[in-house]
Amino acid sequence: MKNEKAEAQIARYERIIKAATVMTEAEKSALVEWEKKHVTGDGEFGTSDWPSLEPIISRISH
């Protein structure tokens, strides 16, 4: 079971990396603004927590 979880996490990060390569300029700007407010270094949020990431991943995961 642990191996399946690790593989799922790796696949998720691979999708995040792919999403970063297809983001529009507007999406990139929105991410930067979100990060300024939420990614403060306290560990509560990271870039991968951006709520608008899911629609981008859906767009590339046909």
TrEMBL record:
This is Uncharacterized protein.
